[in-house]
């Protein structure tokens, strides 16, 4: 490959060995994904798509040629990225891996009583029937015929195949003891001082406590459909609280909500298992058909390792090829360390590591050779014990004659590579160059950032902080937890450890995260389009727009590229898109605004000595200085920028599109925005995801500052450096799934590594520490 310039790559040229395992290293944002995914894998997929007919290409996503001069010797690329699997409520582990599809065929053939085709066992297919007359044309004449149809599906009609039903906790919407005029409504933004008060007063008594409302008045307050009414001569639409909330709040993505709205929604919406199907998603008919006394709902609820043994017991010559394929797929779950899952598990509840390994299932038994497998941080969400197993799988793929490319930060995975390409030297505009290329042994001798940190070992602290209190968890039974009792200490840095699937997240998110005064940062990826950037996502742009408007005596909306200030030619995108049908959509910078996104007259207004486009071109570090002193001093903006710099994002520009950020950068951006929320307790779920060894040190410094400021930090983590730095460790295990769900250790890191009978975590931590 010669002359790669995608994203921040600076004319990179590199030769990669075939049929070898190559690791790509470097700090988050150095250009690893740009080289591997946006250049090598993207070009491979584009060339494969071009082998299809123009008709088929019209239905496929169009891909432009990467910005690279020469790219030769490509083979078919199979990508396993770090994006979590979709959170569609209808998607489960079984549907995402096609295991459910195979099981439905087995039950349609062998289930007793026989109820119909495989669709009769699908919770995504509803039963429907109908009849009527239709008119068709035959031989130039119109002929009327009567036809009927019937579809037999397995969907539960009550929950529509979701397994749960949602309801509103009414006590979170209003205080029944108060009147409307007295502030009974506890919904964000519902003040009686403005138009809401006039709207409600037209239909409801304002000075009567809600508990004294008649049934009709309460129904109007909560459920009334949109109704046109006239208030003070103005035509308005009245709508009950619940349908209004459903449209204004619940239709939005949870991550896109403002923090106070998100907190309200989490309190007010209650999900309960569907009473009609007991949460199985299937109707009575689908659950009535059984094999060896078990319905398809029963086997989907089994642990996959147990299900694999049950499937082996099915002896039917006519289904032998299907049973063999089903058994092989289920065994792949066990080999990859996911045997503790069940097929009914929603994909949205899987951790990042579980999602990534679930996507690998399809490839493990594949007979394909001479392909290029591309993995994006396969160690995400994995305990050091599980990383050993993942290494075996990667080496097996290589030994079958495939080329394996791995973007990785963990030393345990880098050391198995045949070849290493280190990018840097730093991130963003300071990266995009190849700093080293060679063997792991030579990397250790090199003076690159990765080489210097590759053999880093943590040291146990001489003294740990003492807890100032504790959160008492009693009888926790979420998922695989076995009636767990534990005290989670406050005022310290507490690490929750254990192998993947042991019950760490179930314990903390099920019993701690939902408490008052707790801010939880999970592994969910932030979503962002080309029009969103760090300034809009963090809310930083709001005080900046206001300051610009105040300084120039104009409206704040003028300083939004998505509103009145947008360039009239590109509508604020900064880019002109030209659709070329089956070929890649052409993108070219807007000639009117030169890619700056704003109308020319907007750029005449300044704050300090910069216009809004120049401010968005500032790096986080430079912007903090700009808004801290001088005429542009803006404490609200400076506070947000302090956090962004604290998490190591000082090199990013305010206006960089979120769609161009790496996984580690997105993780830290999300961490920064949650750190701005005022809370006493922070729960962080694997905050080291996507972080280079050097970045982990900076993260630990941030966590220390939080604890020293009187906060409590609870970290669900696999990284040994974080474990060693903690004041207290709660280890969950001993294994995963049914073999986990208990507390196997509570104490300091030093006690964990010196215990006479070490847990799995204790064994790996003892091997990692320097002393």
From TrEMBL:
<dbReference type="InterPro" id="IPR003439">
    <property type="entry name" value="ABC_transporter-like_ATP-bd"/>
</dbReference>
<comment type="similarity">
    <text>Belongs to the ABC transporter superfamily. UvrA family.</text>
</comment>
<keyword id="KW-0067">ATP-binding</keyword>
<protein>
    <recommendedName>
        <fullName>UvrABC system protein A</fullName>
    </recommendedName>
</protein>
<dbReference type="GO" id="GO:0004518">
    <property type="term" value="F:nuclease activity"/>
</dbReference>
<keyword id="KW-0227">DNA damage</keyword>
<keyword id="KW-0547">Nucleotide-binding</keyword>
<dbReference type="GO" id="GO:0016887">
    <property type="term" value="F:ATP hydrolysis activity"/>
</dbReference>
<dbReference type="GO" id="GO:0003677">
    <property type="term" value="F:DNA binding"/>
</dbReference>
<keyword id="KW-0677">Repeat</keyword>
<dbReference type="GO" id="GO:0006281">
    <property type="term" value="P:DNA repair"/>
</dbReference>
<keyword id="KW-0228">DNA excision</keyword>
<keyword id="KW-0267">Excision nuclease</keyword>
<dbReference type="GO" id="GO:0005524">
    <property type="term" value="F:ATP binding"/>
</dbReference>
<feature type="domain" description="ABC transporter">
    <location>
        <begin position="458"/>
        <end position="765"/>
    </location>
</feature>
<dbReference type="GO" id="GO:0005737">
    <property type="term" value="C:cytoplasm"/>
</dbReference>
<dbReference type="InterPro" id="IPR027417">
    <property type="entry name" value="P-loop_NTPase"/>
</dbReference>
<keyword id="KW-0963">Cytoplasm</keyword>
<keyword id="KW-0238">DNA-binding</keyword>
<keyword id="KW-0234">DNA repair</keyword>
<dbReference type="Pfam" id="PF00005">
    <property type="entry name" value="ABC_tran"/>
</dbReference>
